[in-house]
Amino acid sequence: MVYGGDALGFHAGRTILAPRVLPGELAEVEEVRRQKRVVHARPLRILDASPQRIEPSCRYFGRCGGCHYQHLSPDSQVAAKTEILRETLRRLGKVNWEGPIIAHSSPAWNYRNQAQLKVGKMPGGAPAMGFYEAESNRLIPIDACPILSPRLNAMLTTLRNEPWMEALERCREIELMADDRDEEIMLTLTGNWDAQDGELLAQKLLKEVEGIRTVALLQESGLRVFGQPHLVYRVGEFTYRVSPTSFFQSARFLLAEMVTAVADQESGGVAMDLFAGVGLFTLPLAEKFDQVIAVESHPQGASDLAANAGKASRKGIRAIASTVYDFLRRCAQMEPDLVVMDPPRAGVDATSLKLLLKLQPKRLQYLSCSPPTLARDLGFLLKHGYELDSLELFDCFPQTYHIESLARLSKRG
User: Fold this and answer.
1) Which of 65, 84, 199, 86 is nearest to 137 (CA)?
2) Is 0.90 surpassed by the pTM of this model?
3) What is the Cα gyration radius of the chain?
4) What is the distance, to the nearest Å, from the Cα of residue 129 to the centroid of all Cα atoms in its chain?
5) For 126-136, what is each residue's pLDDT tens digit?
6) Most buried in the list 59, 62, 234, 364, measured by CB within 10 Å?
């Protein structure tokens, strides 16, 4: 199994990548496309099944592009992801980590606190709501998704039926976010409305649908927010303001463990939280360090970060609205004790990593949602004075190929 959800196999001297196939299985597959020497295929029949294969729980599995591993038990998924992480680091980053990879497992179902529902029309013209098929923009109408939280599933049931389906037909996408109690909902609707129609829709949703506290309309003319301006999300003893379009972790069950793993540090000194978002790690780090410098470039995320930092019980937080690159090129004289990085899927750009090395931080914590870019960035850091101390895997998204991992590094010598 390889990162991305496929299994890697061979036929007539060619490399084949196919989803929903397990190691050791003999499968009949159909070619979909070729990319250099690799054939991407879809499985037609499993001729010789693995004893690890189980029956998927969701009737949309294999059509909907959201899940990849429902044919494998949750424990086997964690084992597979652990080896995928180790192999990806070795192959792409020349990072030969032979030590243990500590795995944290989420409950396998109802874990998502966020969802992006697509809205469109079926071939006959009827409006529909659901998800896209894998590697396509063909819409699959769904009535329930077993990885969504109960509140989000209830909201899906409400919105996909009349009269709401007709009222929402101008939407292209509906983003749902539930709070930590799975009670209150923030909706972000992407589409086009004139000012009056959009406001009427938002007010109607707030008034008539139980649990909706915020409705944001995202269109070419900008963002308008109705109801409460943001959602309040609690993780452990810390409370965060999260506004529409701000990034926040979309799986609810391992958040406290992840925060503890990142912020459980020796006290004192200066910490930097790069790609800080709304401050998920900033606030707990402030309980450990004399000063925390948190950097976020997204305008709404930076605004939430500043608000969350201002309400924190400890006051040694500097919230900076900036790209990581612009921040690092202006602070050459600092020597932080710890740098935490939680970049997007693209990882940390090479120029920013070079600037970071000039600061000579004693320790680094790199939280990654992409093993390939983690491999690239770790490979660079290990060549430039750092050593990998530990590696942890957070299986926040069971049934999917997604992997969150935490690498701890320290400066050699």
Assistant:
1) 65
2) yes
3) 23
4) 22
5) 889 999 998 78
6) 364
